[in-house]
């Protein structure tokens, strides 16, 4: 009965919002403390493959490896499974205040802003913690990057990762049969991962498209070969519901007997014998276990935590390991090439007075697979433009946030004031690093993305902001009496001057949440961690397969590429073990 379903969802969202309000984010890997530090590890048995981290890349990798019936595969995942709340795309920011988010923070980032006393800001760095990983809490924007990105990987001595050699792996997992306006030659139609458009693009986002077209940009399939231009969002939902790595790849094979999901279990160390990985130590319910790998250990713990795990296991920069008295097994630049996108938003008011839906009306639409709850943070269009420095992305959003007011659920923002374009720097020249805080595996790593420390990064975003003003001030928007919201912290600078935008970006900018490069793939162990088969340089039986291996950033988002990496890793492993 639809009314029962609506009652259930209203109540369930209410409960989650109440829990969110009192949620205290962790500062360590809380919940995993050992009952007895001195107790010997419990034997967890022998598996052909052990995957540490069942996230975005890890979930697809686990599915593909366990297709080989004679192999048994263990996934050690620190989180649990998503639920009906995390499956609603529009509440993804709600799940950031829950145990589905690791809730890391950056080290203080230099961001001078006239409105704040300190020139430093610590920034939240959310990461998913569940089977499916960050795909359980992310923004659902399916965006692969451009042909030129992968050809740059190829040109770095990684020919196997040039566009023509990664395209089959993007296509293999995808089912794009519901997408409109795409280049069919570069999409897959038989894979388990459904991608959809948004059915209810707002008049303002459509106008944004028209404005960009009149400025010379094309309407494009931004997952095609050339991403420059603007397109309607392609999103990771199935009938409007979040299509996480868990929902798309693991739940349909939950009864596969050769795949064991060991959830709520934190991997703390890779066991090494000489240059061979032999197993993984992990903590579950405050007890230590050891699982042994007959063939391989694969780290898919994400860009932050695969780097941390390698360092805890003695693989990393010797200066860093020695500082924490960790015996150096192998000197490699783990954590050294940390790159992240950086973003900020520019909002406008208009004269539109569209009727707001009630949450219940929106829920009724959600259950039919349409409406505002089927998109995260209201993302409607995605555009990529070049600047003189680096490409920048423009995403338009009509945000609808559900909040609790006097115990009733309401949308938190008004339609007329919430049209925002977000700008994202895609190829930053600022490079950060990941370090250990301690040799204690229960401490979070130190994450320093080093945002905006290269002057070209700020300059690119300033140029992009001035292009955005042109888009907003174009004739198409005139009838809406559009007005760009000025940032009061930066009112001492003339609007639209370089100084004004520099100020706005530093005062309001935030992480792109697309970290990569920390276990970079490359030819030489001097500047990379894994080779083109994703094997850790100088090691046998140990690979990394997650966004951390991405050698240079993308003109796009990350999860589509993380899946491609999981897909390709499975192929490489099958080849190396004579299965293909
Ligand atoms: C808030 C947010 C919004 C985003 N929006 C988008 C978007 O719209 N589009 C897009 O393309 N990308 C987006 N991204 C980025 C994208 O989701 C990630 O870059 C991508 O999913 C990373 O995949 P991964 O496999 O490398 O890591 P993850 O998916 O993060 O997986 C790592 C997994 O390992 C587990 N793990 C970590 N350490 C351990 C350990 N020691 N032991 C056991 N398990 C462990 C984690 O719990 C997690 O499940 C977003 C990310 C965030 C956080």
TrEMBL record:
Keywords: FAD, Flavoprotein, Signal
GO molecular function per UniProt: flavin adenine dinucleotide binding; oxidoreductase activity, acting on CH-OH group of donors
Active-site residues, as the UniProt record annotates them: 514, 557
Keyword Flavoprotein recorded: yes
Keyword Electron transport included in the entry's annotation: no
Highest taxon, organism lineage: Eukaryota
Family that this chain belongs to: Belongs to the GMC oxidoreductase family.
Name the record gives this protein: Glucose dehydrogenase [FAD, quinone]-like
């Amino acid at each position: 009965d639809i009314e029962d379903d609506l009652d259930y969802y209203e109540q369930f969202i209410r409960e989650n919002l109440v829990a969110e309000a009192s949620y205290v984010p962790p500062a360590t890997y809380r919940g995993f403390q050992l009952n007895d530090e001195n107790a010997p590890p419990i034997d967890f048995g022998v598996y052909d493959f052990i995957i540490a981290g069942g996230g975005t890349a890890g979930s697809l990798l686990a599915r593909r490896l366990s297709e080989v019936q004679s192999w048994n595969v263990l996934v050690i995942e620190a989180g649990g499974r998503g639920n009906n709340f995390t499956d609603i795309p529009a509440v993804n920011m709600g799940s950031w205040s829950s145990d589905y988010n690791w809730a890391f923070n950056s080290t203080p980032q230099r961001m001078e802003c006239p409105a704040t006393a300190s020139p430093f800001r610590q920034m939240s760095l959310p990461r998913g913690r569940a089977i499916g990983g960050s795909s359980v809490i992310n923004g659902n924007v399916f965006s692969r990057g451009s042909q030129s990105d992968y050809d740059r990987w190829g040109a770095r001595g990684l020919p196997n990762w040039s566009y023509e050699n990664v395209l089959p792996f993007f296509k293999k997992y995808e089912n794009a049969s519901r997408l409109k306006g795409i280049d069919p030659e570069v999409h897959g139609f038989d894979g388990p991962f459904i991608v959809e458009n948004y059915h209810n693009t707002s008049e303002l986002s459509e106008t944004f498209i028209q404005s960009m077209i009149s400025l010379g940009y094309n309407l494009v399939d931004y997952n095609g070969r050339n991403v420059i231009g603007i397109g309607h969002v392609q999103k990771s939902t199935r009938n409007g519901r979040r299509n996480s790595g868990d929902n798309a790849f693991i739940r349909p094979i939950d009864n596969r007997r050769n795949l064991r999901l060991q959830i709520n279990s934190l991997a703390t160390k890779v066991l090494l014998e000489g240059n061979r990985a032999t197993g993984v130590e992990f903590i579950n319910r405050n007890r230590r276990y050891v699982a042994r790998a007959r063939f391989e250990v694969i780290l898919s713990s994400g860009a932050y935590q695969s780097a941390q795990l390698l360092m805890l296991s003695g693989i990393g920069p010797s200066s860093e390991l020695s500082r924490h008295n960790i015996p150096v097994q192998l000197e490699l630049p783990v954590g050294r090439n940390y790159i992240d996108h950086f973003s900020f938003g520019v909002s406008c008011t208009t004269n539109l007075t569209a009727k707001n839906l009630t949450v219940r009306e929106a829920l009724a639409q959600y259950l039919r697979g349409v409406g505002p709850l089927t998109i995260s943070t209201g993302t409607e269009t995605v555009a990529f433009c070049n600047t003189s420095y680096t490409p920048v992305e423009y995403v338009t959003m009509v945000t609808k946030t559900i909040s609790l007011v006097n115990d009733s659920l309401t949308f938190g923002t008004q339609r007329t004031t919430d049209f925002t374009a977000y700008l994202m720097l895609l190829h930053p020249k600022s490079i950060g690093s990941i370090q250990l805080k301690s040799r204690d595996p229960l401490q979070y790593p130190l994450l320093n993305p080093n945002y905006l420390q290269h002057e070209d990064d700020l300059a690119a975003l300033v140029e992009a902001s001035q292009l955005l003003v042109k888009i907003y001030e174009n004739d198409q928007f005139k009838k809406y009496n559009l007005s760009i919201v000025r940032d009061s912290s930066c009112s001492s600078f003339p609007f639209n001057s370089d100084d004004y935008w520099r100020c706005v970006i530093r005062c309001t900018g935030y992480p792109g949440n697309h970290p990569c490069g920390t276990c970079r793939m490359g030819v030489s162990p001097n500047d990379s961690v894994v080779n083109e088969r994703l094997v850790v340089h100088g090691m046998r039986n140990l690979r990394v397969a997650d966004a951390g291996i991405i050698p240079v950033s993308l003109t796009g988002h990350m999860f589509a590429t993380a899946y491609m990496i999981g897909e390709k890793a499975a192929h490489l492993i099958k080849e190396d073990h004579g299965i293909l």
